Amino acid sequence: MAQVQVTIAWPFMPKNLVGYISRAFQFSRQFLYRWTVNWRFLDEETFLSPEFAFTLIAANLAVLSLFFATRWLRPPQRTIQEFISSIWEPSPLLMQKEIVLQITPSYIMTILLSSMAIGLLFARSLHYQFYAYIAWSSPFLLWKAGLHPLAMYGVWAAQEWAWNVYPSTSASSIVVVGCLFLQVFGVWWGTRTDSPTEEISVDEKGRTHAHVD
What we know:
A two-stranded antiparallel ribbon has the order 1-2. Helix content is 63%, strand content 5%. The relative contact order is 0.12. It has helices at 2-9, 13-25, 44-48, 50-72, 80-88, 93-102, 105-121, 131-144, 149-163, 170-190; strands at 198-202, 208-212.
């Protein structure tokens, strides 16, 4: 994803790097308190403060790093150093095949939806249209969290109620943030034992071999 972002930005960066970065990310942007769905339980002064904005950014990066180091690198069975090195120096073909065999659709979906949920949890302000992302992803995230079916339905119902309160209230915004918190850290806890039960290797002829632990 980083490579795609750099490729798209490359035509603009040589001409005005500072201008591009400041407009692309625009950390100084202010949001209207009246439209926030997730932080209504805070007072307006706190909501608009730079300290709150930077706290959210720091928390976002910290949780992303936590997931990256302890969850997202587990199925490929690679360390952070190996992952970073592979960006500049691609792994040998046989090793790439071994990694591909460990990447399942569930693993890919978990990364995509959990990273999105982390971004939403620490978003500076969520508006009602963001529920288009949350509504369809929550069932999968709650399932990966390993919650009891009754608890899953309870969280889903509470979230549905909170996003249909207009204008938002302190109670509804607490539920919005609480449901996202349960999904993010529920997935982190629920996937603590997710690891390949087999060590798959590829020989020089491209044949796969499974070694059960």
